[in-house]
Amino acid sequence: MNSRSLLTSSAARRLLRPVADLIDQRIERRIRSAAAADAAGRERLGDAVEVLKHQQLTLDLLLGSSGRGLSRSVSPGPLNRLHSEVAELAGDRDAAVRNVAAAYRLLVALESLGVGRIAGGTMNICGKLGTIPLLDPPNDEILEIGTLYGMFSAGLIRMMERDGRDPSVTIVDPFAGVQLQPGNPRRADPSGTPVDERAVRTNLALAGPAGTAARIQRGFSEDPGTRAAVSDRRYGVIVVDGDHSAEGVAKDLRWAEEIAAPGAIVVLDDFGDPKWPGIEEALDKHLTGDTRFSYLGKAALSAFLRAS
Ligand SMILES: C[S@@+](CC[C@H](N)C(=O)[O-])C[C@H]1O[C@@H](n2cnc3c(N)ncnc32)[C@H](O)[C@@H]1O
């Protein structure tokens, strides 16, 4: 009898049965406990997914697009790009990263507490707010042409003060109840808030005494009466963000030539935005003419110029 037939003989099977039974029981116990662990693991995963869903919902309420048109959540690619652009303009990467973070927190805080919203994408707003103080404007007089709810100016006051500056703001806007743009239909704002001076005052008050003291001139920036009322000083910062047509931007740039202090920073919003091709067109044309402005660069969708 060979060894194989020895093991399969009925005597051997009888002898080995208790051992085989023991092995079977162990395997069964292992399978049962692995299945139980699997079920517990699935339950834990399900609980973790529920927690994540609640956190996402909470973040969406805080940072989502509802009530302002665009989400304030941030992705690494655009943020890294913005850091590089602001660093290039400011010549200081640490300061760029710090200011972009400060601007982001400010944006979320202002939109949470204010009325209306700040117009535009998150990176563009953080780029403007973060860069302007780093370019060391020659004085603290700030003019914003086209303010919507005044919330950007409120943010800029805070950013300038954080840099030890003493900002004094002038605002020009027609306050037409809605945002006016040539060729665009008049439609209600995503925030649901009417575009009026009261909303602007409320938002400026969030920026403390300098906000409360801001000068607000109702009217179109091209109107001689509007211009006469606010051309009494030379501005260290001019933000051009009113009429977005090529003609409108060209007129604002020509006016800015007259009222910019030597060394002033002029910010041209929505530059390079395919929705507003007239802005880039107007700046390109303006810079080929007789001008005090030189192009410093851009951050997100804003061009920065320096007056001689
Ligand atoms: C894009 S919004 C300004 C956004 C604001 N700067 C911000 O950062 O939130 C443009 C504003 O300019 C106003 N506007 C349109 N035409 C204008 C003009 N000719 N002069 C001044 N403001 C104008 C619009 O009614 C609107 O309130």
Offer a few descriptive terms.
alpha/beta, 7 strands, 308 residues, Rossmann fold, single chain
According to DSSP, the number of beta strands is: 7
Q: Which architecture of the largest domain would the CATH scheme give at its second level?
A: 3-Layer(aba) Sandwich
Structural class designation: alpha/beta
Largest sheet: 7 strands, mixed
Please explain how this structure is put together:
With 308 residues, this protein is of the alpha/beta class. It folds into two domains: 9-60; 76-307, Rossmann fold, CATH 3.40.50. It has helices at residues 3-7, 10-63, 76-90, 93-113, 122-134, 151-162, 197-205, 208-212, 224-230, 246-259, 277-288, and strands spanning 141-145, 168-173, 215-218, 235-240, 260-269, 293-299, 302-307. Strands 3-2-1-4-5-7-6 form a seven-stranded mixed sheet, sandwiched between helices. Strand 4, helix 10 and strand 5 (260-269) form a beta-alpha-beta unit. Helix 4 crosses helix 5 (122-134).
